Structure formats: structure tokens, C-alpha cells
């Protein structure tokens, strides 16, 4: 996955990761956010860890 082509978005809830992924994949932000929440609940926090790692890896939104 090329993180340089998938920047965080300004229309963010926390760090803009879900909005950036949703815009890049062309899907709903709600769907991506739901995925992170469900993953966090089912795996005991793995979704939170994944979100945190992506927040560090993804570039900031374009100016």
C-alpha cells in the first residue's frame, strides 16, 4: 500500500486516517470508521493500534 498517495484528510474525526482511506478507496467514511471500531472490539484493541500506526505512516493533508 502506497501511503504517499493516500494522505490524511482535513475532514477528520481524530487524525484523518479513516477519512483518508475512505477517500482513497472511494467508500463511505462511516464504513471505514465502523471497521476500526469493530476491529477494536473484536480483537481487544488491535483496531486502535492499527489506527495509531496508520496515523504515523500516512502523510499530512495537502495544503
From TrEMBL:
Membrane spanning stretches: 35-58
Source species, domain of life: Bacteria
Keyword set, alphabetical order: Membrane, Transmembrane, Transmembrane helix
Residue ranges constituting the Phage shock protein PspC N-terminal domain according to the UniProt record: 10-60
Pfam families: PspC
Name of the protein in question: PspC domain-containing protein
Species of provenance: Salinimonas iocasae
